[in-house]
Amino acid sequence: MKKYFLSLFFSCIGVLLGFAQTIKIEGRVLDALSNRPIEGVEIILQKAENQVLTDKNGHFVISHETLSDGVHIISVNSDNYISQQLEIRSQEGKIENSLLILLKLDLSQIENQIGLISLSEKELGDDSGEIVNVPGQLQASKDTFLKAASYDFSASFFRLRGVNSENNKVLINGIEMNQFQSGRAQWNHWGGLNDALRNQQFTLGFKTNVYTFGDVGGNTHISIRASQFRKGGQTSLALGNRSYSHRLMGSYFSGKTLGGWAYAILASRREAKEGYMEGTNYSAQSFFIAVEKELNSAHSINLTAFYTPNVSGRSAALSNEVISLKGTRYNPNWGYQEGQLRNSKLRSIKAPLLMISHFWSLNNNTSFTSNVCYQLVNSGDTRLDYAGVRSPLKNYYQRLPSYFLRSTTPLDYDYQLAYLAEKEFVKDGQLDWNSLYEINTASGSGYSRYILQEDHTDDSILNLNSLFETAISSNFSLNMSISYRKLKSNNNAIVNDLLGGRGWLDVDSFYNGQEENYDQSDVNKPNHIVKEGDIYKYHYQLLASTYTGYIQGEWKSRHLDLYVGGMLSLTKYQRTGIFQNGYFQEGDRSLGESEPLTFTTYGFKGGAIYRITGRQLIELNAGVLTKPPALRNTFANVRQNNDLVDGLTFERIKNADVGYEYRSPLVMSRLTAYYVEFADQTNINYFFTQNAIGLEENSAFVQEIVQGIGKRNIGIEWGCETQLLPSLKLKASVAWGQHRYSKNPSLYLSGDDYDYNISDGFVEGNDLLDRGKRTVYLNNYHTSGGPERAYQLGLEYRDPDYWWVGISSNYFSNTYINISFLRRSEDFALDSDNQPYASYDPEVAKSLLHQEQFPSYLLLNLIGGKSWRINSYYLGFFASVNNVLNQAYRTGGFEDSRKTSYPQQIEENFASGGPLFGNRYFSGNGTTYYLNFYVRF
Predict the structure, then answer these.
(1) What are phi and psi of 648, to 5 degrees?
(2) Is residue 395 exposed (0-12), middle (13-18) or buried (19+ Cβ within 10 Å)?
(3) Which end of the chain has a smaller Cβ tally under 10 Å, C or N?
(4) Which of helix, strand or coil describes residue 399?
């Protein structure tokens, strides 16, 4: 009997081996139009649930040991291309021929990406602090949730995981483009280069990354190597009503020629007399060229240069009172001059860049890349400056109805004045340029009372880096990078326009003391009369440099991938004053070099991917990172003196996320839970307040320095796509977050009005001596900027005849106003004697300090396009309509810090005409559209 069972067992094994044997499939994947190989294409053998990626030659090999002969299905997926499912037949473990797979461009994804860049470019370049929550990722990702966050959620300035843009890294050819001053990448430095910015790779958080250690908000790498552009050209005409009204663009990419050369060229022009917001004119040009020469099979040199000058008009945050009278599109910064629209707040940017890259392929497994980048950034922001006279803007609080009804018991005459003010404001709320010229020319001295000031910055930035990648074995790879960045920044105010006057007296017109030279912008040039183009008010230089090293190891097996990485960085800052400010003229307080600052920071990260099957995986990522404070948060009063922020330290970040992903031909889904913690952040705000305790009348223009800020962001992300029919797809996404302050930081005020002992000839420059650092009670308040919750449900139809249309409904909630720190410090409750105000009521105080939550809203978006192929040409158009229902909504806002004490807030909240200095809001756009017509060849 035993022999019988043994014989039967080995007979079964023999039968099974006859049917189950190693199946080996190999082939190449090419672009259907250009016949160029496509790297990184995902190939999945469905029955075995095996997957591989194509190499740089488009080649792949996939095999499995236990599948029988017969019919098998493989899935072919790649960003920007239409996915395919192929049926193949194997016999005796082989297929008849090597597969040649031709992928067609997914024009819906490509045009979606173009539309996003075009519509968000102006906001992504904003560095004024007005808009800080636009996601930095602009990649055409296959991930459903990331597509929703990039395309549909961005209209509401949704922040991925509640993280600000200074925590999004942007790199071009491996060079980090984030600024020293703010930590943010300025997309308007390379605006209008849509066709040249398509080769993007995005990684979320601290995930494995060849180019950078990463940051919690995500990392976008853009390759502008000439040989990597898809061969061909394009001309396009875009029309829209958001940032610009029209754009004309032309580009051509040669691909690699027989002589080893490759080149890419692009030029575009964007313009608008007025954007969606009133008075926001726009003018920009863009030029791009990249040339690459393959020296031999191992070495290649790439030269890239671009220049994207642009000028744009700015809008402003508005109070409820102003919105109710003039609407959400109202902009007080502009008016007509001689029949031409003129905006007093213009931002101009000229940022030419030159980059040289050397690519060295030591062998098939090892490469070495070096980059040298030099950029000049010339930027200016204009605004009105006025010498001791009232603001000419029509939304100035003394011109609004609420000013005349500020009493709790207004008289009939007050109501009459309020009515007249309302009537005048509704009739004409724009800037009267002619009156400014008339006032200046009529002044007795001939000197201007009003001028146009330009806050001007000239930066020179040098970047060097080297990247090393090697595959030590089939399972283990190692990559390293070293980089050096250096900034020299020249900052000053310039007289942009005297508005008809003969000159401007460069003194502080608000100073009314008797101390000698205190009112002088530069003691070395007392009572200086400046002309157009002259430097005045402030002048200083900033120096910054960073050395960074990064190493990462990655191990891969069939079911488990592991990675670990580390980063070490050394950052140096220093200020050099060129003007000797009158308030800080003693010693080297304002003139000459400051004390140098040095920060040593580090980061560690690790993660794993476990493949349960070929369709299911679990991913874990975690890391810690320390960062130096942004340059603008380092000096307490950077325009006037060399004072450093007291007790300055670096920022600490912790991040962890765990996710489950399922991928099949019909369903793609990812669910991720995240945790992000920030500690020891520093923030400096600038404003005029009437609660600077200890000063005469408690009024001063101050720098509010907040240290030790802690935040904790937790939440989940879920995205799912289901192929209902071959041409119909259902998509859904959810972002559920809770983003709160987790710690009570400290605060002190800085400014030129703080001088506790005038007789000692020394201006203290802050209130530390009198008030000290005091606690700001922020714990459990919500951080601001964009909704914490976002939900999407959409459908997309793609017809085999190359037209497609999509509709998505997007619901947003839990958006909170940016709270005033000073209002939540002890200064709110304590009088100048450090005792609580006599009228203080804790319950009333609680209601006054309640954080405003904005109403929830629903946005409906439509998107679609059509293309035709005529021989080797593609003709087509792309169209999108956002906020189809013209829904009114608020994307953000901030509390005013002018009146922050308990009695002042009582006065504000119980005034008959409403608060004089109420919350200010940023409103979302109503219905906007974007059309792009193109010819590809």
Answers:
(1) -65, 140
(2) buried
(3) N
(4) helix
| pLDDT score recorded for residue 59 | 87
**Tokens 């009670």 belong to residue:** 777
Question: Alpha-carbon distance 491 to 641, whole Å?
Answer: 13
Q: How far apart are CA 908 and CA 407, in angstroms?
A: 10
Pairing of strands 23-31, 99-103: parallel
Spatial distance between the Cα atoms of 32 and 74, rounded to a whole number of angstroms: 18
Q: Which of 908, 783, 780 is nearest to 844 (CA)?
A: 908
pLDDT surpasses 50 at 12: no
Residues 292-315 as b or e (16 or more Cβ within 10 Å = b): bbbeeeeebebebebbbbbbbbbb
Beta bridge partners of 96: none
Report the distance separating Cα 303 and Cα 204, nearest Å. 29
Among residues 605, 691, 597, 716, which one has the least CA distance to residue 653? 605
Residue 108 CA to residue 731 CA, distance in Å, equals 15
Whole-model pTM? Answer: 0.89
Tokens representing 45 are 């053998």
Neighbours of 352 (CB within 10 A): 16
User: Cα(42)–Cα(273) distance, rounded to whole angstroms?
Assistant: 46
Residue whose tokens read 């300025």? 186
Judged against a pLDDT cut of 60, whether residue 672 lies above it is answered with yes
Instruction: Read off the tokens for 355.
Output: 């980059």
Write down the mean pLDDT value for the chain.
Answer: 89
DSSP run (H or E) holding 720: strand 700-725
E strands in 346-499:
346-350, 353-363, 366-386, 450-471, 476-497
- Answer yes or no: is pLDDT of 356 > 70: yes
At 122, give phi and psi (nearest 5°): -65, -45
Three-class secondary structure of residue 118 per DSSP: helix
CA Rg value for the chain: 31
Does pLDDT of 124 surpass 70?
Answer: no
Separation CA 271–CA 619 (nearest Å): 45
Q: Tell me the C-alpha distance between 734 and 720, whole Å.
A: 9
DSSP-derived secondary structure letter, 150: I
d(CA 221, CA 833): 55
The alpha carbon of residue 39 and the mean position of all alpha carbons in its chain are separated, in whole angstroms, by 29
Rounded Cα–Cα distance for residues 174 and 838 (Å): 61
Q: What is the pLDDT of residues 148-205, one digit of tens each?
A: 988 888 878 899 999 998 999 999 999 999 999 999 988 888 889 988 988 888 888 8
Residue 132 has what pLDDT? 39
Tell me the sheet residues that pair with 660.
618, 671
Each residue of 357-377: pLDDT tens digit?
999 999 989 999 999 999 999
Residue 351 CA to residue 208 CA, distance in Å, equals 31
- Cβ atoms of 243 and 122 within 8 Å: the answer is yes
Distance CA 779, CA 352 (A): 44
Q: How far apart are alpha carbons 788 and 730 in whole angstroms?
A: 24
pLDDT over threshold 60, residue 131:
no
Tokens of 159: 């922040």
> Which of 37-51, 106-120, 524-538 has maximum average pLDDT?
524-538
